[in-house]
Design brief:
This protein is an alpha/beta fold and 252 residues long. 30% of the residues lie in helices and 34% in strands.
Length: 252
């Protein structure tokens, strides 16, 4: 995806401390997965891995992780970060809607975090992706998705600041702008990084994408349609709602 190719080298600046975020998020995800699959080393497929925020954190905890994404530049950065940290993660390029076909391995868990699923702009595309998640899982395996709760987002132009970061001898101002369409079902999203080194004129990096503001309730319905059971929403443990469902086991 062009957005993530454009911002791959700056993506970590979304977080005040990317390393701590990677560790902290992985610990939360591990607890959720352990509650459903047991406290053991898992085979995990991250189908929207980006620069590896969740993939690398989970690998650090001893899980066997395969990450995929559409952005080759984000994948290149994830690979470099894995090498720098001495972590073994298998990264590859794949559309989440084709994740099972792209890697025929069977996994204990499939994850898609940081509101990646709503990059797909229709229910049909999301259902296709969820069915691919199920196909990639072993019987009894778990799909875990984190998304924004769009039912509580005002349908108006929004300015979303992430803060001021210091990196590489410069100061960065990081923010988003959301522009909603008339239906209130989709919005265009701009991600901005303003770099000021105090000497030259500030540089601005901006990249854009479109999101489908699908409700959590509708996503849960689509998970059921895709063949998951025990589907549930978990709040107040992660920075976004977490949706979890189990693939029907061989004896279901």
């Amino acid at each position: 995806m062009q957005l993530y190719d454009d911002i791959a080298d700056s993506y970590h600046l979304i977080h005040s401390d990317w390393e701590a975020t990677s560790v902290g998020q992985a610990e939360i995800l591990q607890r959720i997965l352990a509650g459903r699959l047991g406290a053991r080393s898992l085979d995990i497929r991250d189908v929207s891995c980006g620069i590896g925020t969740q993939s690398l954190g989970l690998a650090r905890l001893g899980h066997r992780v395969a990450g995929s994404d559409l952005s080759e530049r984000a994948l290149e950065r994830a690979r470099r970060r894995a090498v720098e940290r001495g972590l073994e993660v298998r990264f590859s390029r794949a559309d989440m809607r084709e994740c099972a076909e792209a890697d025929r391995s069977a996994f204990d868990a499939v994850i898609s975090c940081d509101n990646s699923l709503p990059h797909l702009l229709t229910d049909d595309d999301i259902l296709t992706a969820l069915r691919a998640f199920a196909e990639a899982l072993r019987p009894g395996g778990v799909a875990l998705v984190t998304v924004r709760d769009y039912e509580h987002e005002p349908r108006e132009v929004q300015f979303r600041p992430f803060g001021i970061r210091e990196a590489d001898g410069a100061r960065f101002v990081v923010y988003q702008i959301w522009d909603w369409d008339e239906s209130g079902n989709h919005y265009d999203f701009g991600m901005y990084f303003v770099r000021d080194d105090g000497r030259n004129r500030p540089d601005v990096l901006v990249s854009r994408a479109r999101y489908y503001a699908i409700s959590v309730g509708r996503l849960l319905e689509l998970m059921v349609q895709a063949g998951f059971e025990g589907v549930e929403r978990i709040d107040d443990v992660y920075f976004q709602p977490v949706l979890v469902g189990r693939k029907r086991g061989a004896d279901s």
